[in-house]
Amino acid sequence: MNTPNVEGGPRTPARRPYALVRDLARSLARPSSDTAPLLSGASAPWQRVLPYVAAVALVASLLPTTVAVLGDGHDVGGGVAGMLATAQTAPLLLAVARPLQAWWIAAPAHLAGAVVCLLSSDSTSAWPWTPPGVIGYLALLTALSLRERARTLTAVWLTTGAAGFGLDLVAPGRSGASTSVLVFVLGGVLLLLGGALRERGEARRRLTEQVGISEAERARRTLLEERTRIARELHDVVAHHMSVITVRADSAPYRIAGLPEEALEEFTAIGASARESLTEMRRLLGVLRSEDNGGERTPQPGVDRLFPLVDAVSRAGVPTTLSFEGAQVRGLPPAVDLSAYRIVQEALANVVRHAPGARALVTVGLASRGPAGERELRIEVVNDAAGAPGEPLEPRAEGTGHGLVGMRERVRLLGGTLQTGPTPEGGFRVAAVLPLAAHPGTDGAGGADGTEKGAGEGAGREDVSTS
């Protein structure tokens, strides 16, 4: 014995069909929230206008035809025939944007037309659907299938079949001329095909959205990876200076005789603060460093390491020339020194990947700008077109290049500018300007502590070519 259906309890078998009918009926009262005209998202203008042209053509042809069929074939009066024909065909114009609302107007009109025809004559003409009524109703179902959900389409199809079956039961003598089965079958086929097309379009739209989201996430992940990499490298630079501060503060009492007690306490506090800062930086670096990266064991490179880099690139098949312009590049701030090397490294790596066989020119120099003569480091890497035809060593992926992302982040960190783009000769150019004014204590001619840092064994050389 079935137990009463309480709130939250299992539903009895007797209530399941009722719930299904209720859900189908509710779906007929809930049209899709999308009210854009059919094909409004098409790229070609003629495709966006096509639904309106089809609707106007159907109404213009079916309206007078329906009036004639109702009047001549079923002896319906002219006024009544005109009102029924208008109610059956005019909703096709509304169906372009709101097909379910149009169905709510046209379906009762078709049902009323069948009743009027039944009462007006006992003609053996097609009934309960007239030929123009069949065409207009199937066109309406097609528009409906391209907009509404599957449950709504099922409810429309079952309602159409039930109405036709009920009319056939009322007038069994006209069953030989009945068009209910024809409309029921053809309508089901059109609803099924249209629904499948709509689902396919929805799937493609969702796939396009997912692709866009994936591209955005990939770009964001690339940016975060580059920022993490830059943070790890800058940690090494800053940690070196913090270590120097700690050593000098701790050794000051032994190097300088006769320091007062206040000075000794100040040096002790400075050393303790520096060691605490180093500890915090190492803790932060542990978060930034990936699990498979155990840490760097070599000093961070600078402009003095450009000559070995150029040699390595030339051995990789890209003849490269390194040129220094203006004053000798030495004593750069550590962040600028490291960023300059990484920018040249990434630019040459892109040449090796995407333009094998091309020649590259690297130009590095110090310059002054503005009335105050602010010093800045200028870097330019230019390559010509690929020297030999063939595919790049690595395919170019739009929007996912780590090299340009890293360059932009480094330049933005230092407050500089970066220009990238193709050259008229078919090559590519990368130009970066890194200001030195934001790094007090250095002027590009010597280190902060009065020492000089040469640009490797090639310091002072105006042009170095390797091929």
TrEMBL record:
Please give the superkingdom of this protein's source.
Bacteria
MF terms per GO, please? kinase activity
Q: Where is the composition biased (Basic and acidic residues)?
A: 450-467
Residue ranges of every copy of the Histidine kinase domain listed in the record: 342-438
Q: Which residues cross the membrane?
A: 49-70, 76-96, 127-146, 153-171, 177-197
Name the EC number(s): 2.7.13.3
Query: Which PROSITE patterns does the UniProt entry name for this protein?
Result: HIS_KIN
- Region annotated Disordered sits at 438-467
CDD domains cross-referenced by the UniProt entry: HATPase_UhpB-NarQ-NarX-like
Has keyword Transmembrane helix? yes
Tell me which UniProt keywords the record has, alphabetically: ATP-binding, Kinase, Membrane, Nucleotide-binding, Phosphoprotein, Transferase, Transmembrane, Transmembrane helix, Two-component regulatory system
Pfam families referenced in this protein's UniProt entry, alphabetically: HATPase_c, HisKA_3
* Reaction(s) catalysed (UniProt annotation): ATP + protein L-histidine = ADP + protein N-phospho-L-histidine
Q: What class of enzyme is it?
A: transferase
Name-wise, this protein is histidine kinase
